[in-house]
Amino acid sequence: MEPFTKLTAVAAPFDMANIDTDKIIPARFLRKLRTAEKGYDPWLFYDLRFDADGNERPDFTLNKAPWRNTGVIVAGPNFGCGSSREGAAYAMLDWGIRCVIAPSFGDIHYANEIQNGMLPAILPEEHCATLRAQLAATTGASISVDLESQTITGPDGATYAFSIEPIYKERLLKGLDDVGLVLQELPAIESFEKRHFAKMPWLA
Amino acid sequence: MPQPMPLTLFEKIWRQHVVVDKGAEALIYIDRNLLHDGAFHAFGALAKEGRKVRKPRQHLATCDHYVPTSGREKGLANVIDADAREMIRLFDVNGAESGIRSFGMNHPQQGIVHVIGPETGFTQPGITLTCGDSHTSTHGAMGAYAFGVGATNLKQVLATQCLWQKKPKTFRINVDGNLSAGISGKDVALAIIAKIGTAGGTGHVLEYAGSAIRAMGMEGRLSVCNMSIEAGARAGTIAPDDTTYQYLAGREYAPKGKQWDEALVLWRALPTDDGAAFDREVSLDGNAIEPMLTWGTTPEEALPVSAAIPDPASFADGNKRAHAESALRYMGLKPGTKLTDIEVDRVFIGTCTNGRLDDLRAAAAVLKGRKVTVPSWVSPGSTQVKREAEAEGLHRVFEEAGMEWRASGCSGCAAMNGDIVPDGMRAASTSNRNFEGRQGKNVRTHLMSPAMAAAAAVTGRITDVRTLMGDR
Ligand code: SF4
User: Fold this and answer.
1) Do the Cβ atoms of B38 and A104 come within 8 Å?
2) Tell me, what DSSP letter sits at residue A149?
3) ipTM here
4) What is the per-residue pLDDT across A140-179, written as a single tens digit (0 to 9) for each?
5) How far is B408 from B393, CA to CA, in rounded Å?
6) Judging by DSSP bridges, how do beta strands B162-165 and B26-29 pair with one another?
7) Exposed, middle or buried, B3 (CB in 10 Å: 0-12/13-18/19+)?
8) Distance between B129 CA and the closest CA of chain A, angstroms
9) Interface test with A, best of B156, B421, B433 (most A CBs within 10 A)
10) Ligand 1: which atom is nearest the Cα of residue B353?
């Protein structure tokens, strides 16, 4: 997993609350294989990005010139609610988005972002709203994110502190893979299993 | 002597599964994991890292998302497209290579993952259970801590049988009183989500309690817990009791003989102790719950069937107002319209929320001796449910009413298998998500109970099922 330390990138505003993972990637694309050559970015926000005939909707944020290079999304509350599909994280990551700033996230999607080296940064709604308004006013403006100091710098230079659990911060900073972290505990797991299944042999 | 601290059901399960406690997070042992045909990403990642499934016996797999619900005897040839055929092929390959028990497309135990878990007794009280699917919350109805994970966490469970997790908070939802005739677990779930919101449970494990929940059968409880994720919750739970044990006894993977007696002793100690503290608590009056349905594009945009479409301008919360405005545009509905004046084009009964035998019985009771007026289909939650329903003759009730009786799968819930509602049409559906585009492009979904969906199929519009129950 690629570590996340600092990022300065074009940021796009998404005003809606409850952007569910079905919106981020419609279910019909989840059957696609994801390879190094062919990522999930073509399906990102597909039904919002394209009309019924497969033509780009010019109004949609990511279809506007500077926002095609979006690396950060600033969204409303409950971002990534709904389905557990990790495809939602894949699609954003493959597009080049490595950070989502929102007042709150769906639990499973939050974990999926972390597992993919993406930063889900939690910022109070009033600050998210300010950032979204500034980004909407200056298409293509950038935001800087510093994970170490847990700060976000907006287009106007104002700085905001965001929250993230220390455990997730450490994983992202070091690019740690969870399987490795778990397997370090193998002796503890094996002794747990012995006790646990001795008590409940029907579960083994 | 000091009294032991009273604990919640969740706290007891959590404590019994902590392998390593690091304060901020704990390594949690996962007793059992369920897999479906969407799990190929996790198997692919596992293979890429050169890892193996550590304990294949702790897993059970079924093919549900991509399977067709008609013409299954034709095998892979009848699967919607090449991509989906590949999913189903990979499902069989991954099962065979990993040694995981797998119910392929034409296996007699095939079914929707959250139906077969309880049905086979794989899901049990007191266990931790994961699945790469958000509706894993369903299994909490049996007194388990069950939650959905993404592909990377699923890979970890396959490789290690453990997950690092931050301990969630607890949230008790009390539903007391008696549910009226015609009110099911689905109505209770929608009433709860309408009250607490789609993010109301975020970071929490819900415990449903109160006399209305206790009086519910296992299948109603499974519907309630299924919808926990629609309230944003990590999981939903219900304390196990005699209803749970009666349901579980004799099922394939349930303990037998002496082990059953030992298990019962452990299970009976699980329910939340008197005086245990929850981080949050709300109460609903079960007597007041009416048949519920959604009018918008999130499950919290739900109202009793007697209500009218609300005016977004009346919403104090700006985000909710904006959401309601865009939802009404998508749904093609106007404020003030009575819900019972909304006409539907399609009716779908099934899914992991409402595809169990009791659900089909409730729908059939409404349909008996009547005809549907819009194209409608039923997909039982599992092949076993299908057999049981046929043994009772329910399939004839559906067919005589003019509904299609299909094979089991996720079908029109996420519409991944091709069972989509045509572009722009309005569906009455017993599924769990009314998100834009979920059941097909521009499709307008109204979530409701099986009885309500059956009533809508008969009249062709949203109907209070109780008006069709008078003479029965
Ligand atoms: S029926 Fe629907 S919600 Fe349930 S597992 Fe299948 S797709 Fe998911």
Assistant:
1) no
2) T
3) 0.93
4) 999 999 999 999 999 999 999 999 988 899 999 999 878 8
5) 17
6) antiparallel
7) exposed
8) 12
9) B156
10) 4
